[in-house]
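TASK: fixed-backbone design
INPUT:
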């Protein structure tokens, strides 16, 4: 009997049929894409209008030469004891400047109803299931506010592309924006080691910028060598356990104990807050998570149980290098 887990581990691709082991999971769990973006529920009301000056992405002339900028600015910085140290929570965007028209543009991806609403649900009276206002989307607008990005952040030229490449990127942004709908705050890993298994990847502003750079590299963009660091909010846990979706947990056939546990878990965390209050709330989670070694994660509209382990939660500001491009196909 003792040998069984070892054998199963040696043959991980399902050569043991039947109930010997659970179906092989793919880690990290792939982020789910949808066919289209549903309208947000009217219960979700933004305190600050999403993308107030947004516009459609313009079609550029083929022969245009467009400079691409990395933009980054702190959302919130604070010091929290030795556990988290000095936290640098950065927001990322990308800038474009057309040399034919002299106009410039900013593109970013962020929460429709702010970070608190994307991270914690509302427990509404008369509703069993926690209620989420967790959409995020891309926002494109004319202008780059140099002072805003430069003051304590970054505004740096990273590559130059052609109008054709820009127009191809615009098509991809449309697809990406229609199919990648829900914001995911947390990265979940097995340990702080670089090689540790990643159970879940976050899906937030910086991931959109990384995808955009990768798309440009695939189109032939060659990036400069500059160090590019990004913020990640990481939870540490043993292998996650799949629990089910809203219907299977909170519906008529659901397990009442589990449903109550999930609601209880989210009870202390209020989503209404400002960014500052959010991080104060985040610090409260640590206490609760350390005490109980448990976390209920909502990812792809499904719930997972995370058996939490030391060091539980970390906020890191680490390098993810710019992509290494392949040979230019569209030219600049
Ligand atoms: C979070 O969602 C609630 C419910 O719609 C809303 O009242 C609140 O304004 C939202 N918070 C922010 C910061 O937008
Ligand atoms: C992305 O989708 C949102 C929500 O539908 C929309 O407001 C926004 O304009 C779209 N962004 C782009 C760049 O098309
Ligand atoms: C973007 O355009 C504005 C307005 O013309 C200008 O003030 C700013 O310096 C430009 N920024 C960049 C990075 O091109
Ligand atoms: C930039 O940093 C300075 C000094 O720490 C601070 O006073 C200022 O408010 C910061 N500006 C922004 C936009 O965060
Ligand atoms: C660059 O590589 C990517 C991925 O390997 C590929 O999809 C793309 O077609 C390539 N682009 C060019 C311009 O060679
Ligand atoms: C929820 O899970 C059940 C059982 O696994 C499945 O039949 C159902 O289609 C799922 N519902 C949604 C909305 O994904
Ligand atoms: C119901 O959920 C609880 C808490 O997660 C669990 O301990 C129990 O085994 C579950 N019961 C059934 C019948 O699945
Ligand atoms: C950027 O990331 C690198 C490697 O991940 C790290 O060594 C460096 O200290 C980071 N820079 C800042 C300013 O935190």
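OUTPUT:
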């Amino acid at each position: 009997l003792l040998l069984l887990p070892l054998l199963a581990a040696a043959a991980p691709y399902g050569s043991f049929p039947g109930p010997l082991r659970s179906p092989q999971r793919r880690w990290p769990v792939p982020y789910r894409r949808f066919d289209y973006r549903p309208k947000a529920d009217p219960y979700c009301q933004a305190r600050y209008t999403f993308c107030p000056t947004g516009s459609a992405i313009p079609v550029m002339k083929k022969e245009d030469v467009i400079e691409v900028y990395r933009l980054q600015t702190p959302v919130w910085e604070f010091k929290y004891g030795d556990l988290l140290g000095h936290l640098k929570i950065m927001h990322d965007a990308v800038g474009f400047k057309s040399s034919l028209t002299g106009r410039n543009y900013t593109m970013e991806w962020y929460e429709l109803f702010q970070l608190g609403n994307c991270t914690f649900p509302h427990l509404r009276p008369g509703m069993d299931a926690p209620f989420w206002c967790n959409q995020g989307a891309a926002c494109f607008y004319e202008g780059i506010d140099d002072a805003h990005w430069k003051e304590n952040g970054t505004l740096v030229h990273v590559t130059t592309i052609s109008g054709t490449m820009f127009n191809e990127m615009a098509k991809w942004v449309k697809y990406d924006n229609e199919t990648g709908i829900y914001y995911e705050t947390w990265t979940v890993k097995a340990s702080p080691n670089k090689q540790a298994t990643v159970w879940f990847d976050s899906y937030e502003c910086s991931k959109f910028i990384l995808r955009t750079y990768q798309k440009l590299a695939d189109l032939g963009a060659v990036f400069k060598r500059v160090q590019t660091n990004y913020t990640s909010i990481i939870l540490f846990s043993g292998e996650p356990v799949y629990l089910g979706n809203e219907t299977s947990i909170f519906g008529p056939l659901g397990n009442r104990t589990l449903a109550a546990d999930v609601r209880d878990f989210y009870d202390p965390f209020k989503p209404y807050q400002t960014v500052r209050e959010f991080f104060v709330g985040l610090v409260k989670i640590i206490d609760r998570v350390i005490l109980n070694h448990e976390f209920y994660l909502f990812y792809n509209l499904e719930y997972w149980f995370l058996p939490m382990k030391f060091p539980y939660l970390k906020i890191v500001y680490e390098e993810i290098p710019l992509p290494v491009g392949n040979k230019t196909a569209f030219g600049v």
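COMMENT: The first strand starts at residue 65 and ends at 80.
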